[in-house]
Amino acid sequence: MKGALAFECAGESLQALPQGALYWPARRLLAVADLHFEKGSSYAVSARKLLPRHDTRATLTALAALIDALKPATVVCLGDSFHDRDAVARLATEDRSEIERLAARVRFVWIAGNHDPAPPPAGWGEVAEEIDEAPLVFRHEAHFGTVHGEVSGHFHPVAALTVRGRGFRRRCFLTDGYRLILPAFGAYAGGLNALDPAIAQLFPDDYDALLVGRDAVRRLSWRQLRPDASSMEPMT
To answer: What CATH number does the domain containing 95 carry?
Structure first.
């Protein structure tokens, strides 16, 4: 796919896509993390924040476009696909129909996350705590300690850097060649700085950030990043 960055994890050739998704060509597997369907409506109800309630539609549109382009055999959603326990009930009729349409086209695997207290409705695909597609294991949150082929989400990593005196932040993948953390795919997901101790402790040695740009993904060492992503403009 145009703009994708090829890299290796656990000896497998993978592609980081500029949409913030992962593609594994050898298995025809597409992975996305932290969709957070209906986060906008959750905030409108519980926090009374006037966010536009169209995040689910935007996220589904982006996911459908990737499925159309790549024609994967399997789509793995790495947990926190639904923002809260009542998210499915708040889905608009057309959004439910779109999920059902996509699930009828391709095998969906929904990994359980901390925001997923209940499985999605019957007919929307499989539900699992994790799946082992040796040599890669797909789970919601990275396990602490040594791993030799782990793909996860949960942290919503964001890289901060300075370009020509200006600060920018971008969603990013993080990898050391054995562990891979995906950026959040959801439209309203937010992010945690890639140098935050909660993330950095998972990479005791070198690791790289694969920065998601508008049209391409580029690779930087963690040493080129900044610790503070606040008060920075999004990098286009």
So the answer is: 3.60.21
